[in-house]
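Can anyone check this?
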Amino acid sequence: MRVVFFLITGLFLWAGPAMGEPLRVVTDIPAVHSLVSGVMGNLGEPALLIQTSDDPHHMQLRPSQARNLARADIVFWVGPKLTPWLGHALDSLAGKSEVTSLLSIPETHLRPNRNNPTAIDPHAWLDPENAIIWLPVIAENLAKLDPDNRQVYLANAERVKEQINQLLPRVNAILATSKTRDFVFYHDAYGYFSNRFSLQIAGVLVDNDAVEPGAARLSEIQALLKSGSIACFFIEPGKDIARLQPIVGNSGVTLVPLDLTGAKIDIGPTFYETLIEQISTEIASCSN
């Protein structure tokens, strides 16, 4: 997708951080912003490009977002698998910035798309073990540009890691109250979460939310819903429930919005943990 930059000559010249000024850090989605915020602590606040109300797969940069990219010392993003349009923007605007793609960090747990094993599912932040892997890399990459504060970044990363380690048993305890662990999802975005917490995804309607399902997939999902083993069909908030209701028919399965983006969660260091716990609570509540 084309990205509109509204560039004015000389407006986006990169000059690097001034001595003693905090790093100019940019992140893509709120979950990444949360992790980077935790590592930065009191040393600064990263800018967020993609708000919870934005579609990360398809959007155009506003002028203020383009300015943030052009002025950035370092950018953290999931990677082109999630936001291919942002890759073009980084090439055009952030050519002198350090750029870290989280999906490219070694040891990151990656999974293929459910119905396309040759493609990587980009929603890797929904596995908290990946967040734990990313934290020290985030700290080290910030420290490369701000070596005087290296120990602060590393200590903050350890603190956030411990918070996530404490989150994992809470999520398992929440999901343990679920009477069923078989679910249908509208969008193939929850594979990392289900793999980490031993949930069973019985079916997925669409590989990505920009593509309509084919007749064969519709028939497959309708058969699953009628099987009697599915309690919930999770859809993204904002989806037209009336349009999806014919797929559910008289199966008795409940159509339930499940918020992948955390639209109602405050942006900041606690966003990530709150998002993971919120998803687990919504899944458990639906299946009881």
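Reply from J.R.: I decoded it. Residues 1-16 have pLDDT under 50 and may be disordered.
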